[in-house]
Amino acid sequence: MGNMASAAPDIAAETGVAMRLSPLVRRVLAPNPSPFTYQGTQTYLVGEADLAVIDPGPMDEAHLTALLTAIGERPVRAILCTHTHRDHSPAARPLAERTGAPIKGCAPLTLEDDGPRADAAFDPDYRPDTVLCDGDSVTGTSWTLTAVATPGHTSNHLCFALAQERALFSGDHVMGWSTSVVSPPDGDMTDYLASLERLLARDESVYYPAHGEPIVQPRRFVRHLLGHRKMREGQILRLLDRTARRLSRRWLRACMLVSIPVCTARPAARCRRI
Ligand SMILES: [Zn+2]
User: Fold this and answer.
1) Predicted confidence band of residue 182 (pLDDT cuts 50, 70, 90)
2) CA 235 – ligand 1 centroid, Å
3) Ligand 1 center to residue 211 CA distance, Å?
4) pTM higher than 0.70, yes or no?
5) How far is 83 from 196, CA to CA, in rounded Å?
6) How far apart are CA 253 and CA 260, in angstroms?
7) Does domain 18-216 have CATH number 3.40.30.10?
8) What's the 83 CA to ligand 1 centre distance in angstroms?
9) Helix, strand or coil for residue 126?
10) Are 177 and 138 in contact (CB under 8 A)?
């Protein structure tokens, strides 16, 4: 699914510069466009006198330099990560080393989960200084960011709500250009749908996704996402039902032909109508 009615129209992608989106929010686009990241990962800088950095992005020296330029002399209170995919969290540690800021955000996937739960996009080096749970807040001079647990795209995904502007940094849970990839074993469709429902109960007026333009009618957008997934689910269930009926006819025929003597096999032809 491409751009949807309630997302703002796309504007030219420019990497390396901080674009102002609101009094408290700027964003810097990383140079990592791909079929999975659209124009690239968008890192958000929140605050005026002091800052939070949300999703510092992939390990890319040019992007890191752009972030440091945009930060300037302002103190960074926290580096926040929505989840641990390679296009979101690897720059957290080098940025922490250069700014002195702590890394706060989603939990790392635990070691025993690395094998079966991790996929190729997983960042195994992510080590937060503080793990934020649902409802935990980080505060600066003119801003407060509160974690909203939104598992589904990954099991550890968090969104961050900025109360002062009724804004939500939606990471990869709700994106501005496409539906989210929900890839097992770590991704979970039931959790994803519940996390979308959770957002419907909130009252933010704009979402800032990690990929794609700001979403300016977010509840309508989320209802559209839920409707899209339920339509797909219905298609799959109908297909499974038809496939199961075909398989069960074949299976019954095979069982009957194996279990009856050859001389009496003719009646088994009736199985075609089962
Ligand atoms: Zn992701």
Assistant:
1) confident
2) 26
3) 10
4) yes
5) 16
6) 11
7) no
8) 7
9) coil
10) no
